[in-house]
Structure formats: C-alpha cells, structure tokens
Amino acid sequence: MTKRFEIRLAGTGGQGMVLAGILLADAAVRDGKRVAQTQSYSPQARGGTSRSEVVISDEEIDYPEVLQADVLLCMSQEACDRYAGDLKEGGLLILEADLVHRAPKVHAVRVPITRLAREATGRAITANIVAVGLLAGLTGIVSRKSLEAAVQGRVPPGTEEINAKALEAGFEAARRLRK
Question: What DSSP letter does each residue of 88-110 carry, written as one string?
Fold first, then answer.
C-alpha cells in the first residue's frame, strides 16, 4: 500500500454513505492500519448530499481529509458532478450505473449497485453494503475478513444476514469485473 490511500464515498442522504465510510474505516483498523474518517451531509435527513471520506495509511495521518481521491464512489449524479474533479489522475471512479449518466472523460467502472442490492437482498437500502464490498474487492485496501467483521459488528441488530448477502454481492461484482 502507498503511504496514504484516500477514498471518497458520495451520494444523497439516505444512501448510507456515512455508514459505508465507517465500515471501511473499521475494517482498516482491524487490518492494523491507521485511519481517519470524516463525513459531511446536508441538513436534510434524506435527499440532500452526503459524503464520507476515509484516509488509510501505514504511517501517521497528518491531515484527515481527502486531498485527491484514489477512489471515488458516486451513488448520484450530483455527487459525480461535484467531486469527480477531485479524483487523482489514474484513480478509480466507481459509478452507480443506474443513477449516474454523465461522467468526466476518465475511465470509470459502472455497476448497477442498487439493482444488485435489490437482487441480492430484496432491499435497495443495502446498496451501501454492496458498494463497500465492490470497492474492497476492486482495490484490496481492506481485507474481506475485516470488512465482514466490521459489517457484522456495526449494522443494526437483526440485519446481519441481509447485510452479509449484500456484502457478498459486492465482492462478487468485483470478481466479475476483474475477469
């Protein structure tokens, strides 16, 4: 891993980007890495913009926010429009294929994340868990074992099984893309 790996997860309120960032940060800590996680969301409970940032490093983190994202996950068109310019040259742009229709002229991975969530769990609300599985599967920035433990430890009681299915769907989507 490079000294500093920056991830920005962005979408609209209610898509679970804050929890997704917390899960990635938790998994990185379980892997023995240093982590800073920050979040920002509009005052609206649902529908406003939402962003979570995770900085992962093997060394001390002197600035806790994303400067240039190594990975940018956009779950909405507004998120892509707002944050795509902050992607590091050669960085990984992951787009929710059914919700993001315009993207900058860079290579982007387009995955119907919400549709995969519905297919795997019957619930669109698990798209954030599919997304973190996809991101981890594509980058290897956190181990699968640590991410599974983070999900099991942080999702609401009674939802562990459905979230495990969502996480598996994300890892499976990453496996198919790597082929």
Answer: EEEEEEEEETTT-----SS-EEE
Q: Is residue 159 packed enough to be buried (19+ CB in 10 Å), middle (13-18) or exposed (0-12)?
A: middle
HEC profile of 20-68 = HHHHHHHHHHHCCCEEEEEEEECCCCCCCEEEEEEEEECCCCCCCCCCC
Long-range contacts, 139-142 (Cβ 8 Å, 24+): 139/71, 139/92, 141/1, 141/5, 141/7, 141/24, 141/28, 141/56, 141/71, 142/24, 142/27, 142/28, 142/30, 142/31, 142/33, 142/56
On whether the CB atoms of residues 134 and 120 are closer than 8 A, the answer is: no
- Give tens-digit pLDDT for 35-60: 999 998 765 555 678 999 999 999 99
The 10s digit of each residue's pLDDT in 82-92 is 999 999 999 99
For 148, the 3-state DSSP assignment is: helix
Contact indicator for 113, 16 with CB cutoff of 8 Å:
no
- State the Cα–Cα distance between residues 60 and 3, nearest whole angstrom: 9
DSSP 126: G
